[in-house]
Each structure stands twice: as C-alpha cells, then as structure tokens.
Design a protein that fits this description.
alpha/beta; 7 strands; disordered C terminus; single chain
C-alpha cells in the first residue's frame, strides 16, 4: 500500500519518494528514466507476468527499485536486475537486504549484455519484466525477439514502452503504425497491450502516455524462415514503404517480380498491405532460392 513520507510499505521498506530523496536519485533524461512511485501500480504491472513463483525475473533499469520491490512482493523466486546508473545501487542494495537471496543486482549496460550467459546459472525459467528506459527500449526488444535458438531463453515478457511504440508492436496491416516491429513481434510472439498509463503515473511525468505489452513466445513461428532473413525483407520493404514492392525489394533481388509472383503477392502492393505471414513466406522463399541481398545493417525501430 502507498504510505506517507516517513512510514514503511508492506515490505517494510521506506516509500519510494523517501528512497529517492535519501539517495539523491533525481531521474536523468539522458538515461531515459521515468520512475513509478506508486507500489500499488508497480504490483499491478508485476502481476501481468504472473505466476511469478517459479520464475527468475530479469529486470532492466530498476532505478530506485519500485518494480523490483513489486516483483518480490508478488512472489518472484529470484530477480536479476541490470542497472547502468551507479547512483541507484545503494537503494537496490537495501532492497536485496530485505529479501535475502532473492535479488541479484548487476551493474552494466543492458545493450551490451549476453543474455543467455547472463541467466545461465538461473535455477528456474526466466521472464523479463521491466519499465524499460525509453531511449533503448526498441533496441532491447528487437534483440530479445531475434534470440537464437528459438524458443527463447525467456518464457514471457511484460515490458513498458511509450504508448506509440506499444501501438506499433501490435499494429495491424494497413495501419500507419504497421511496420518492421509489428512483423517480427507478431511472427514470433503473441503480443497484446495489457495496461495503459498516463504521464501522471511517472516521476517526472513524460510528455506521452505509456503502455505495458505482454509477449508470449510461439513455440514454432510459421512460416519457418529465419529471423535474420525476415529482418532483411522487412527492412527493404518498409525502408521505402511508399514504393511498390517491385521497387522496394530490389535491394534483395534484381528481379523482385519473379520472387513476388512465386509467393503469390502482387508486385504492385506496398509493404503495409502485406500480412505477417506474407513477409515470412517471402523470407522463406529467399532462403530456399539462395537469393542474396545487402546486409541489413542496424535495425530501425519501425
């Protein structure tokens, strides 16, 4: 329950406002930090990944530990938190002391983390639950969605994004939000927006609303192309989304029309008109034909 300044919460720890004040943890825009101080709300987010009792939960960017405390209060067997901001380590150490043996805090950069090695010693299946730093959220998501081998090392994810990013993840073909992020997310997982939060839920309040997306991996995504090839196809198609596919796919093959007709897709269509299945079938045919294209390079977020 929320408590007044100077009191304690249900876990015996001080309110987050007091923790932030004591450790001088003003949120840094450069680190994409926006904290949720209401433990009722963080516990609600934690429950979106339930049941937690048999899980090792990976959390990125715990900050002062609001969601961390919620995950532990909701019964997570073990939480492994990755925090880049050294200022937060003392506050997280206090949380670890309140939950002996159940919280491990590792200082480091989430983007440079080898996740499978990171959880190699975990004794239980892993899930990812995080209020992701907004400036790296999409890059982290793509890395987790492109995990190999598949099924992935995580059994489910409950992740906070800016609402606009969340809408792109679940977007349907034909919509302006539909793009590469929607294709890879929906090909490999069942994803849905589970909770929308207004700016006032955060300190400091961001300029936009936020949303929690819950992901459950598909055991065998179909059609069974490779994530790397699917990434190349979607980058080519959505990189020139206003052009017809017979033009936008020339970076993959010198004769896109033959490729498209083999899959049964009209060359006059544009990227946003294709379904997730269409893209995966294209990728599969490219693999079977041994077609080569330019390196995909860095991922864009759309």
């Amino acid at each position: 329950m929320s408590v007044a300044s100077g009191g304690v919460g249900d876990d015996g720890l001080p309110p987050l406002r007091d923790v932030i004040r004591h450790h001088d943890l003003a949120a840094k825009k450069s680190l994409g930090q926006n904290f949720i101080l209401d433990l009722n709300l963080t516990r609600r987010i934690a429950r979106l990944a339930a049941p937690l009792g048999d899980l090792t939960v990976v959390e990125v960017g715990p900050g002062p530990g609001g969601l961390t405390r919620a995950l532990l209060m909701e019964g997570a067997k073990h939480v492994i938190a990755v925090e880049r901001d050294r200022r937060c380590l003392a506050a997280l150490k206090d949380v670890a002391a309140a939950y002996p043996g159940r919280l491990t805090v590792k200082e480091g950069d989430a983007l440079a983390t080898d996740w499978q090695a990171f959880i190699a010693d975990a004794e239980t299946p892993a899930a990812i639950v995080a209020n992701l730093p907004y400036n790296i959220a999409t890059m982290l998501l793509i890395a987790w969605l492109e995990t190999e081998p598949w099924p992935p090392w995580w059994s489910r994810m409950a992740l906070m994004f800016q609402k606009e990013v969340a809408e792109r993840i679940v977007a349907e073909p034909g919509s302006k939000a539909y793009g590469r992020l929607a294709v890879i997310a929906q090909w490999r997982t069942n994803a849905h927006i589970a909770l929308v939060l207004p700016p006032a839920a955060f300190t400091p309040p961001p300029k936009v609303s936020s949303a929690v997306v819950v992901f459950t991996p598909k055991a065998q995504p179909q059609p069974a192309c490779s994530a790397k090839t699917l990434g190349r196809v979607t980058q080519a198609a959505f990189g020139q989304r206003r052009k017809m596919l017979r033009q936008s796919l020339k970076s993959l093959t010198p004769m896109p029309e033959l490729l498209l007709r083999e899959v049964g897709i009209a060359p006059e269509l544009r990227a946003e008109q294709l379904t997730v299945d269409d893209f995966a079938r294209l990728a599969l045919v490219i693999e079977r034909n041994g077609s080569s294209g330019a390196s995909s390079g860095a991922h864009k977020s759309d």
